[in-house]
Amino acid sequence: MKRHDLIIIGGGVGGLVTSSVAGQLGLDVVLIERENKLGGDCLHYGCVPSKTLIRSAEVAHLTRRAGDFGIQAGEPVTDLGAVTDRVREVIESIQKHDDPERFRGYGVDVRFGEARFTGPHSVLVNGTELHGRRFVIATGSRPAIPPVPGLEEAGYLTNETIFGQRELPRRLGVLGGGPIGLELAQSFARFGSQVTVIEMADRILPREDPEVTGELQELLREEGLTIHTGTAVERVSVENGERLLHCRQGDSTMTVPVDEILVAAGRKPNVESLDLDKAGVAVERAGITVDPRMRTSAKHIFACGDVAGPYPFTHMAEYQAGVIIANAVFRFPKKVDYRVVPWVTYTSPELAHVGLTERAARDQGLDIQIARFHFRDVDRALAEGTGQGMMKLVVHKGRVAGATILGPHAGELIHEMVLAMQARVRISTIAAAIHAYPTLAQVHRRTVNSVLSAQLFAPRTRTLVRWINKLLP
Ligand SMILES: Cc1cc2nc3c(=O)[nH]c(=O)nc-3n(C[C@H](O)[C@H](O)[C@H](O)COP(=O)(O)OP(=O)(O)OC[C@H]3O[C@@H](n4cnc5c(N)ncnc54)[C@H](O)[C@@H]3O)c2cc1C
Ligand SMILES: NC(=O)c1ccc[n+]([C@@H]2O[C@H](COP(=O)([O-])OP(=O)(O)OC[C@H]3O[C@@H](n4cnc5c(N)ncnc54)[C@H](O)[C@@H]3O)[C@@H](O)[C@H]2O)c1
């Protein structure tokens, strides 16, 4: 009986990173993917289509705002079919990197079919039983559909279907004010749909700092989105061809008529088809349980990415895959370190975050300083017409403990703070670094200086400066 070194289930980012590295290192690797293409959610139904769509929406928005820049242009007309074609083209050009032949060239045996465990060391795919010494489960997640009466009958879109739409809905109802809901809600509003977001929690993006989500919510409202927070959809009905969202907000009720519904109410791990009990792999509601070395309850089986959590991002699946390579291939006992994890919500303006929020730091009892700086005081942002938002910094013992940026290109800007945290750089070093003028990156120095200037201009320093200047010629 042939025993492969490593059998990897799932051809998304987690599975692709582990299989390409293990294959190139000479291990006997099998990669199993149930769709007929590699790339997973990120490439086909997630990051890539959403960011491509967002770019088209931005063009529509800029066209609408052209007058603000002294350029005459009419109201933009969205051809959603053409937008969808562009999304497809971008996916196809990136898909070339995920060509199965490329992986076969690394020595990986790529198989298409659904895998399920038949025992702790065996899986079944397309009727063939494969045996392995170690396994990686990287099967990702799918949309969680809330059990709202009438929703199934009314029909709805998810991230798996929305990027194939060719007709712009006149009215779009979005269930969920998380990253997926808001990125798509704003894009469709910019395309010209009337968009209503229904969020169950009392604010959008409940995991983010409330100071910046409040500002983002206001900006989205100014752009024409209707956002109902603290609101539950209790029932959906279809009357005269329109879908009606029957909602409750506290004691009051309302009905929102829409043409399409987008469900973006969270994710569910893809575990059901795996027969994990046959392999002795424990699973909870949030996903497969893993230890800090990404090992499941069966120590020769690893899991990474959305199926394991706790952070459902592409860069996290890639990071965790690296930890699995260390443990399963190099046999080095490496553990995950989640202290410096950035993430970005690609609304406009973008919202980027790393490390502790103010609330989390205070809950930990840390003696922190908070620094803020607004993009309305960043010259480049004004020149660009993007002076909304702010940077908020959590400083602990002279170092960055966390940062949140709501502003233009926040997803790019956050990485100076990522590096500062990773390298444990003092904020005085950030202040000392020359930042080119006029860049948006000046926001870092200016935010940090707002803490340091309090020390610089403190009475003690002023007295010292007076004495030095009296004593020295
Ligand atoms: C709309 C949207 C936008 C997003 N935007 C971003 C973003 O901007 N930035 C970011 O970092 N993250 C983003 N994400 C999240 C990101 O897509 C995921 O975190 C990432 O794809 C997780 O990678 P993965 O390898 O864990 O799973 P996936 O990429 O989902 O891959 C899992 C693969 O396993 C396969 N599979 C499942 N079960 C089986 C089985 N039994 N046998 C064989 N194969 C199986 C699936 O077909 C799939 O191809 C977004 C997600 C969505 C939905
Ligand atoms: N830019 C990015 O990195 C990016 C983009 C999209 C998605 N993602 C990842 O994918 C994950 C899933 O995104 P998501 O937005 O679907 O999930 P989410 O869990 O982040 O947000 C879902 C939102 O829906 C709300 N909700 C849940 N049930 C509801 C209901 N019945 N009615 C109304 N509101 C309801 C929740 O309160 C929550 O705010 C995210 O956690 C994120 O990490 C990342």
Keywords:
FAD/NAD(P)-binding domain; 3 domains; 473 residues; 23 strands; binds nicotinamide-adenine-dinucleotide; Enolase-like, domain 1; seven-stranded mixed sheet; binds flavin-adenine dinucleotide
Q: What can you tell me about this protein's structure?
A:
The protein is an alpha/beta fold. It has three domains: 142 residues, FAD/NAD(P)-binding domain (3-Layer(bba) Sandwich); 116 residues, FAD/NAD(P)-binding domain (3-Layer(bba) Sandwich); 114 residues, FAD/NAD-linked reductase, C-terminal dimerisation domain (Enolase-like, domain 1, 2-Layer Sandwich). 35% of the residues lie in helices and 26% in strands. It is built from 16 helices and 23 strands. Strands 1, 2, 3, 4, 5, 6 and 18 form a seven-stranded mixed sheet that branches. Helix 3 packs across helix 4. It starts with a strand and ends with a helix. Bound molecules: flavin-adenine dinucleotide and nicotinamide-adenine-dinucleotide. Flavin-adenine dinucleotide binds next to helix 1, strand 2, helix 2, helix 3 and helix 10. This is Pyruvate/2-oxoglutarate dehydrogenase complex dihydrolipoamide dehydrogenase (E3) component. Belongs to the class-I pyridine nucleotide-disulfide oxidoreductase family. Keywords: Disulfide bond, FAD, Flavoprotein, NAD, NADP, Nucleotide-binding, Oxidoreductase, Pyruvate, Redox-active center. One of its GO terms (molecular function) is oxidoreductase activity, acting on a sulfur group of donors, NAD(P) as acceptor. Its cofactor is FAD.
